[in-house]
Every structure is written in structure tokens, then in C-alpha cells.
Amino acid sequence: MLKIIKDKVPSLRSVSKEVTLPLSDRDQQLLDKMLEHLKNSQDPSFREKHPTVREGVGLAAPQVGVNKRMLVIHYPNYEKEGEYVSYQLVNPQITVSSLKKCYLKAGEGCLSVDQEHPGYAYRAYRITVKAYDALKKEDVEIKAKGFDAIVLQHEIDHLNGILFYDHIDKNNPFRQENGAIEV
Ligand code: CO
Fold first, then answer.
1. Nearest to 12 by CA among 65, 51, 52, 48
2. What's phi and psi for 41, nearest 5 deg?
3. Which residue numbers are catalytic?
4. Residues 142-146: contacts with CB within 8 Å, 24+ apart?
5. What is the pLDDT of residue 78?
6. Spans in the chain with pLDDT lower than 70
7. Which of 13, 103, 104, 175 is most buried by a 10 A CB count?
């Protein structure tokens, strides 16, 4: 089982390195293990057997001790029943970000953060991400908004050593930003 690194570990704060393509078997295996971890984490019976495993929708390689620009995302597609939003992204780049912001009303969580950090983490409402998707085995351009955009930005932040609570205003954690959309 993958060991998730917590936020006191310095490597989680460093900028990760670009991945060489075509993807090595070793990198593909790591992405497969990471995706499997997310799927297991969403299975209540698995969590019952492994109480230390927390439920998650995204995981970046630095969180499992590998400082490479790779991440996985997996959760049910709320717009299409039975389908999943599922990616294994390599060298993702945000090419477009809207000025319009959004935030998760319930606050963000992170498998590497055990303490509570109440407050709003403002993110771009719409983004475009370019990456190699090792699930589809092709270059992809993802246009995302709202929750989907928040998850992508949260995971890409990990590749730059940034954690969600870095975005929370320390002096006014629930500060309301004009025009920001609640998700
Ligand atoms: Co995280």
C-alpha cells in the first residue's frame, strides 16, 4: 500500500521535476498504484479494513515521496451517472485561467494534511490544462470549471510545493471575494 507523506515533510514543499516522455514502465506503475489507492480509498469496505486510509479524489506524486510532475484524479462524474472523472496526468500545465474565482464552501481537504484548516481557498473558476494522460495514452487538453477546476488546481499545486491552506487568508479565513462562485 502507498504511504502518504504528511505536510511537515520538506519534500512536499519542493518543486517537482518534469517527467521524461515516453513514460517509463516505472512511472506508469507508480501512476497505476496511485489511481488504485484513490479507488480503494472510495470503497467503504476497504477503509473499514484499513482505518488509516482516508477517502480522496486526487493524489500527486510528491505525496507518495516522488518529486515528479505526475498526478491522478478519480471521482464520480456528477453530470453523467455511472461515469468517472479519471486522469493520470503527466507534466500538466495550466494554459488558461479565468479571472473569475470560485471556492469550496466546505473548505478543501488533502490526504497530506491531518489538521483542520478552516477557510476559503480561492481558485480560478475556469481553467484549461494541457498534459499527457497516461490513462488515455495521449496528449489531452482539459477544459474544467467549478469543482473539476478546483481539484486540478489543488493537485497541480502539489507539483509546485503548494498546499491548499497557503491560499487561505490567515487574518480573515472566510473573507468573501466579490463575484466568486461558491461550489
Ligand atoms: Co492535496
1. 65
2. -65, -20
3. 155
4. 142/87, 145/102, 146/102, 146/181, 146/183
5. 86
6. none
7. 103
